[in-house]
Write a structure and sequence with these properties.
The complex is a heterodimer of chains A (438) and B (409). Chain A is α+β, with helices and mostly antiparallel strands and 438 residues long. Chain A is built from 16 helices and ten strands. Classes of the chains: A alpha+beta (438), B alpha+beta (409).
């Protein structure tokens, strides 16, 4: 029976191609706009590291007190001072912990014909690679002993390794960054958490990541200062690098891995005690004020999803409703033109239920077509977005299987639901009346 | 006159009427709010930096060996100024719309440390007396720096210069009622380091200006006459009209000649600085604009659908009216008037919806409240759209021949 209905649907499409195409267009546009906007929001608010988002915690510690903030605010700084970061790092209270920041460096290719070029580096500590599950192509990250020794070693990104070593295994080779030589201990595979949750302070959260990773202790020894912000609301920076290390300026991101609720509680107590110690020593003149936020809460707190994205979903949803109302009007117009056909079918013995089913199947066919065209226009819209927003947003506007299935299903569901009213109206057709007419 | 038959026709076609009204209302609500957001973006993009942007470009470098000295910086500046197409050059720490820069709290009284006590937050620029001429800033009060006032130093390091030039916005925030010229202000808590304001420029936006609509954040700036030779350097170069791209190459060559151990960042003409600073806003405005157009098309489609349905249903009546002497234009007018009535009802409902949507958006996203003028323009647009859409089926109705009346049905 279904086959027969689909054949009828096809015939009805052929008989009224303009109206049918208009319905399909309305559905396709509405669905694709909605799906595009949702994709962007979904990726933006998505979990960048699903396997660990509950156990990785951003650590905040109030080193500036109320006078470092605007009146009424209580939120401690989002980064730590060097002295606090080192104290927490060396305490080893969490299973894993990292302190880090971004630096800018110059890569000097071995071939003297090639020009040096600027790169971004992440100065971090040994636990980084295991903690954030960085996939490795060659070699591996460095051990804690390298952190202590401040060894001149680096882990290259796949991209930089391709540029410097044509993608070959470069472990054990040396690279020149600025004036210094570093030994390569590992090369990461593609690693691109979206958003880049571990460093949202610079506002670069959707941009491409770092080219090299190197020990934080080494960058301290070599006095390489951060390429991000030194925020000095809690006290002056001082003049030299040594002054900066002693100052109340915050410039290091600190993360801790805490697997169980007990670990979290323990770490929280540890931070409280640490703050109280500083209070006793006269450094903090306020009650301990700490934050431990896991990845999801952290992203919400840092407002990583921009209002633009939420707004566009809202607009897209309103758009979708307008499209459905349009489609409904067009469907009604189409079904009216067919009262005569329905009358004949009723007179020949089709039950009103059969007519209802037929119209719904027809709506389904239209919806399916709308979904397919919607797919096409989603691809097109994503391309437009990549064109318009070449930086951050463009990078995440990608088609995937979930989006593909979602688009078609949404179109189908929307059309069938919208089709109920015209179908119900076609049920009301009285056989005799329509036969009488022409 | 004509309204009575229209109303009675609508009463018999409630579904279609409701659909049209709902669609118009929704379209108006979305359109007016989206257009208002787009207008806000465009206003944001349109703000002036205070610089004469078309003849400026910025170039940053980094020395791959050596730390940079005052003498080397002076040599660089002299060499660049001697290039034929170069009008003037400054070494600076940052520039408007760059995104990152130096920010500081300012107070009128000495010894204040906390953000809460300070009178204003401001962007700090460090460049010498060449700055006003090179950038094309408009000095509205006081004077420029003199050569002797320029200090050599590091941005983190004293001695703090004793004079400064401020933007008008900052002057107004610090001294709302009085004259700022000659007044002392403090950028650090050190009460020995007082700075005297010697000049006010009309406008000099902060490096973060593009990311904020807050006037203080985007317009507050202070210039200190500091030259800071270091491993990093940033020049802003003013060129003679029409010689931008040729000069960019010559500037790099000249700098490499005096010190080959240099890598350059991107060379950025100010037009490009502005473009990339507002890229997101412009793209968002374009994207929303496209959505508005498509939304209009969809709404028109819906109206065509419903009106066609009505025309199809009333073929007989139209035939009878034509047979009884109604002209073609009277028939078309009937459908257009009918559409206008529905559109007006839709607009009334839409204005209510727009208004509440706008308040909701305002409270959730901080976007500006929808203005009455914007709303009226959108209402007019939507009604015209409805009329255009209804035109197609209305003209088809007008072509119905009087003989239709004699067909059965």
């Amino acid at each position: 029976m279904l086959e027969y209905y689909i054949r009828l649907a096809w015939m009805s499409f052929r008989r009224n191609p303009v109206l049918s195409s208009l319905i399909i267009t309305a559905i396709a546009l509405g669905v694709s706009m909605t799906m595009t906007a949702f994709t962007i929001l979904y990726v933006m608010s998505g979990d960048p590291i699903p396997s660990k988002s509950r156990v990785l915690f951003a650590v905040q510690l109030d080193n500036g007190g109320p006078q470092s903030r605007k009146a009424g605010e209580t939120e401690p700084a989002t980064q730590l001072t060097y002295r606090d970061a080192m104290a927490l790092l060396n305490a080893h209270v969490a299973q894993r912990q990292v302190a880090m920041h971004q630096v800018s460096l110059t890569a000097v290719p071995a071939n003297p014909d090639l020009k040096p070029f600027p790169i971004a580096g992440r100065a971090t500590s040994a636990d980084f690679f295991d903690m954030f599950e960085v996939p490795m192509l060659f070699g591996r990250g460095w051990g804690a002993s390298n952190d202590v020794a401040g060894s001149a070693i680096v882990v290259l990104s796949k991209k930089l390794n391709e540029r410097l070593f044509n993608g070959l295994d470069s472990v054990g080779k040396s690279v020149r960054l600025d004036k210094e030589t570093y030994q390569v201990v590992g090369v990461t595979d593609d690693w691109d958490p979206k958003p880049r949750f571990y460093d949202v302070i610079g506002g670069q959260n959707f941009d491409e990541g770092e080219d090299v990773y190197l020990p934080l202790s080494l960058t301290i020894d070599r006095q390489i200062s951060t390429s991000e912000y030194e925020i000095c609301n809690a006290g002056p920076r001082g003049e030299s690098f040594a002054d900066l290390l002693q100052s109340e300026c915050v410039w290091l991101q600190f993360w801790a891995e805490l697997s169980t609720r007990e670990d979290v509680a323990r770490y929280s107590t540890f931070l409280q005690n640490y703050s109280r110690e500083q209070q006793r020593a006269g450094r903090f003149k306020w009650e301990p004020n700490i934050r431990l936020l896991n990845v999801r809460d952290w992203l919400v707190e840092q407002k990583v999803v921009p209002n633009d994205a939420k707004l566009s979903v809202l607009v897209a949803f309103g758009f979708f409703i307008v499209c459905l109302v349009s489609a409904l009007g067009l469907m009604l117009a189409k079904s009216f033109g067919r009262s005569a056909e329905f009358g004949v079918r009723r007179a020949l013995g089709a039950s009103s239920r059969a007519l209802f089913t037929q119209t719904i199947v027809e709506a389904g066919v239209i919806g399916l077509l709308g979904g397919l065209f919607g797919l096409g226009s989603t691809v097109l819209e994503l391309r437009v977005i990549r064109e318009l927003f070449p930086g951050g947003l463009g990078r995440i506007a990608q088609m995937d299987a979930k989006l593909l299935i979602g688009t078609v299903l949404l179109a189908l569901a929307a059309t069938v639901i919208t089709g109920i009213y015209p179908a119900w109206r076609s049920m009301q057709v009285a056989p005799a009346l329509q036969l009488k007419g022409g | 006159m004509e309204l009575v038959p229209i109303l009675s026709a609508l009463r018999r076609n409630k579904t279609g009427a409701v659909l049209v009204v709902a669609q118009i209302a929704l379209t108006l609500a979305i359109l007016s709010n989206v257009i208002s957001i787009v207008a806000d973006r465009l206003a944001l993009i349109g703000r002036a930096t205070g610089l004469d942007e078309h003849s400026l470009f910025a170039i940053g470098y980094r020395l791959t060996s050596g730390a940079g000295s005052a003498a080397a910086l002076t040599t660089d500046l002299t060499n660049l100024r001697s290039l034929p197409q170069v009008v003037d050059v400054i070494a600076t720490n940052s520039y408007p719309l760059r995104g990152s820069g130096w920010a500081e709290g300012i107070s009128r009284d000495p010894g204040l440390k906390s953000i809460q006590e300070q009178a204003a937050q401001t962007a700090v620029y460090a460049f010498d007396h060449h700055g006003i001429g090179t950038l094309g800033l408009k000095l509205v009060a006081g004077r420029n720096f003199s050569t002797e006032e320029t200090q050599q130093g590091n941005f983190n390091k004293g001695p703090m210069p004793s004079v400064a030039i401020v933007s008008r916005a900052l002057a107004k925030q610090l001294f709302p009622r009085g004259d700022i010229l000659g007044q002392s202000i403090y950028l650090t808590s050190d009460s020995n380091k007082q700075v005297t304001v010697i000049g006010v420029v009309d406008r000099l936006q902060s490096p973060q200006a593009s990311s904020s609509i807050d006037e203080h954040q985007s317009e507050n700036s202070i210039v200190l006459p500091i030259n800071s030779p270091s491993q990093y350097g940033l020049f802003i170069i003013r060129v003679k009209p029409g010689s931008m791209s040729a000069t960019m190459r010559r500037v790099q060559d000249s700098l490499l000649k005096s010190n080959p151990d240099r890598v350059f960042g991107r060379v950025r003409p100010f037009d490009e600085v502005r473009r990339s600073a507002y890229e997101r806003d412009r793209s968002m405005a374009i994207a929303l604009g496209i959505i508005c157009v498509i939304l209009g098309v969809i709404t028109a489609l819906g109206i065509v659908g419903v009106t066609s349905l009505w025309v199809a249903r009333r073929r007989n009546q139209i035939g009878i009216r034509r047979a009884l002497g109604a002209t073609r234009s009277a028939i078309a007018k009937h459908f257009l008037l009918e559409n206008a009535l529905l559109c007006c009802a839709g607009v009334l409902l839409g204005i209510l919806t727009s208004h509440s949507l706008s308040i909701w958006l305002w409270s959730h996203y901080g976007s500006d409240r929808l203005g009455a003028a914007e709303l009226l323009i959108c209402a007019f647009l939507v009604v015209s759209l409805g009329q255009c859409a209804a035109m197609v089926p209305a003209l088809r109705a007008a072509r119905i021949s009087p003989t239709e009346a004699f067909r059965s049905g």
